[in-house]
Structures are given as structure tokens and as C-alpha cells.
Amino acid sequence: MLEKLDLTKALGKAEYKEKITVLEGRLGRLQRECKELGIPVMIAFEGYDAAGKGVQIGHLIQALDPRGFEVHAVKKETQEEKFYPFLWRFWTKMPAEGRICIYDSSWYRKVLKDRFDGKTKEKDVAAAFRSICSFEEQVTDGGIVLIKIFLAIDKKEQKKRFKKLMRSKETAWRVSEGDLKRNKQFDRYQMMHEEMLAQTDTDYAPWNIIEAVDRKFATAKIYAAVIQTLEQKVKEVKKSRGNTEAAGESNVAEDKTMLAESILTKADLSLKYSKEEYKQRLKSLQKKMEKLHGELYRRRIPMVLGFEGWDAGGKGGAIKRLTEHMDPRGYVVHPTASPNEIERAHHYLWRFWNDMPKAGHVTIFDRTWYGRVMVERIEGFCSKKEWQRAYKEINDMERDLTDAGAIVIKFWLQIDRDEQERRFKARQENPEKQWKITDEDWRNREKWEQYEEAVNEMLIRTSTPNAPWIVVEGNCKYYARIKVLETVVNAIENRLKEEEKRG
What we know:
- By secondary structure, this protein is α/β, with parallel strands linked by helices.
- It is built from 21 helices and ten strands.
- The strands form two sheets. It has a five-stranded parallel beta sheet with strand order 2-3-1-4-5, sandwiched between helices.
């Protein structure tokens, strides 16, 4: 998840001032509505050290009536708290109806700082995740709105902020030895955050990931996330009580879109290879792939490759070049179409489990289970609750695969709208390729922005260290095919090196 974030996002001073004035007014009104309706609210702030949790909480409460909220700073357990289950101190700090509780760090300390420091043993981590998910499900089922905010910065920015704090006697105390140790071992700590986000990102308590290098951008995005969640809850409560009066609307949807993740815009679509360079690289990589495919079979390592992307993005061409020198007895390509009647009668993941590879074999999916959070989401083939729940379901499924020894990689083939249109027209004009273009392909272009929003969210929420998303710059087909081959070859080589180390 976190490696996909664009941490360069920023807001100018004038734009920020204009937006925050509107957002503050809306949040203040929502607090009053929640009080009148008796809606309790919990807002948990997590993130890296020096990411700005305290600063952002300070900004958020500026819009709130101080008589209606309480802020809890969560530090290490006291001696008394150690005598209780770790969630006891949070159950005792629960908001009453109509009130807001804000947590500066939260119950996630158990699987983050305490885990890093060895206070939470690795054998106890799985149980801690189960307890956390159960806790969050219970409080939300009980009517509490739970909003989880994660502030993300990178190692370089964190180190810069630490240095700034340590230059002054008034602020140096805020940087501990533990903070510096976690910065030094940033990659290890980030892996713990990645696992935490994947394990606890649920439909009833999803994470709001905030790019926090630019503080103004982070503040605006936090406001938008909180407002959107509270507006939805107010509507639900009013509807359940037969109140036909609509909850007040704001321009938060527009702000949320502007502030949304933008993984796809980071792709450099100018990347390309000449035909000569392409042929040279292709030949070398396919030779490696032929040998490595045999090693997968010999060592009984299964591999799952998923291909998604825009229509005409080049999935078929990339798969063809990947498999050209592979033994056809050791791989299978599954093109995924709309589910048939039998498949619709089952859980949406059922048909994919049926096609998973046995040890030593490779399965390639041309379109995948991610249709749940793209086409089914956008076309209304499943409910909002179903596609929101799917992120965790998919992460859990992919974890099951990798825990069983599989290499799992997902590719998103990215092209721009102009390139897609050019390819569509080329297909229409070529009698041998006209079958590849349909009226539905043209209709989907009209929903480009909706799909882009869904894809960005999908990439953030389901790119994990064990099953990463690889965004493939695809305007140049030569470049895309080589990147796919290089990625697969590198992944297999790395696995073989790991197995050699283990002996």
C-alpha cells in the first residue's frame, strides 16, 4: 500500500484557505447534527513518528465545539493497565451518544511500536489483529462511527523533521531514542505498518491514508474524510428513523476527488524502447524465463500472475511474450469474463479458487477477482458494502496463497485516453482485429474518471509486500512487455535466492 503513495501532493496557501473555511463550517454543523441524533464518534490517528498527528488533531478540533469532544493521548501502558487485557483502556475511553473521542495513537500501538520493541511477541501478533478487528466490529455494530486516519511520510522526510526538532532545546525532548531507531530501521517498521493496514482495513472500519508531507494538503484531506463519513452516517440514521429531511450537503465530494490517491498519474507514459532494443531484451529475458519456469516446477513453487488494465492496454500482448518460451504443460492462462449462472450462485472468489495452480505450476489470469472493486462497483453489480468489504477479502485470499508458498504478482497496464482511442480505431480498421472492439469498450470510455478513481483506491488498498501491484507504463507496447517479463524474472530469481539461503 504505502509504497504506492504520491507523497509530493501539496496545496497552495490560497487554495487551502479557501477550502478549509468551507470544510470547517461543514464539520461544525455535522458535530451538532451528531449530537442531536445521538451518534457517538471515534477518530483514531495513526502514522509514522513526526508525521504530524498532534498538529493535525489540533487543526481538526478548531472546527469543533470543545464541550462535545475529548482527546486521548495514548502512550505505553501504565502498571495498572498491564493488569488488564490490552483493549480494556480503550473500552473505558469510549464516547457517549452524541460525543466525539479523538485518539492520538490508539489500540494499534500493540502491533506497531510494541511489536517493533519486542513487547508484543511475534507469536501474539495474529491474536492481537483478531482482537482489534473484533473490537472495531463490535463498536461499529453498536452504532459508533469509527474513523481511522493514517498519516504517511517517507524515511527522508521523517529524518528531516527529527533534525529540525532536535535543533531546539524546546522541542528536542520530543525525539526519543526509539524514534531514531525506528527511522534507522524504517523499512522493517514500514513492513509492520503494511501488515497492519492489510489486516485491519475492513468495510466497517476502513483506513483513510493521508499523504502527510505537505501539512496543508493533509489537513484538507483529513477534513474531507471525516466529513464524508459523518455525512453518510447522519443520512443513514435519519433514514432509519423515518426522517425524510436530507442531511446537509457540501462540496466535500469534489474535495475528496481532488484529494484522492493518484497512483496512475505518477506513471511516466513516455517510457519506451526502440524495436531493436526491444528484440534484444526480449530474447534475453525469454531465455531466462524458459529456465526459471523449469526451476519453479523442480522446486514445486506455484506462481499466480494477475493482469488488469484499461481496455486495449496490452494485456494479451504482454501475456503472449511472457509465455512464448514457457513449457505449455506447466502453465495455464484463464481469461476472466462476466460470471455465468453457476458462478453467480457462488461467492465471487469461488471461481478463482477453482483455477489456482498446484505446486510447481503457473496460473495467469487475464482479468481477475479485482472486477469486484472495479466494474462491479461502478456498474452497480454489487452493493457498496460488498465492494468495500472486498479489499480485505482479497488481501486475505492473496495472503493464503503466499502463505502456501505461491509467488503472487498483479499487473496494471496503464495507458492514456488518447492512446486507447488510437488503438480502438486501429482495431476497427483492421478486419482481423475487429472482434477485439465492442460497443461496450466505447461506453466504458465515458466512465474513465470513475474507473480511474476505483483503480487508484484498489492499488492503494491491495498492494501488499507479499502480493504487490506493478503499474506498467503501457503507451509503448515494447516497454510494457519488457517490464512485465523483467518483473516476473526478478521475482522468481529472488525467491530462488531466498530458498538457497534457507538451505
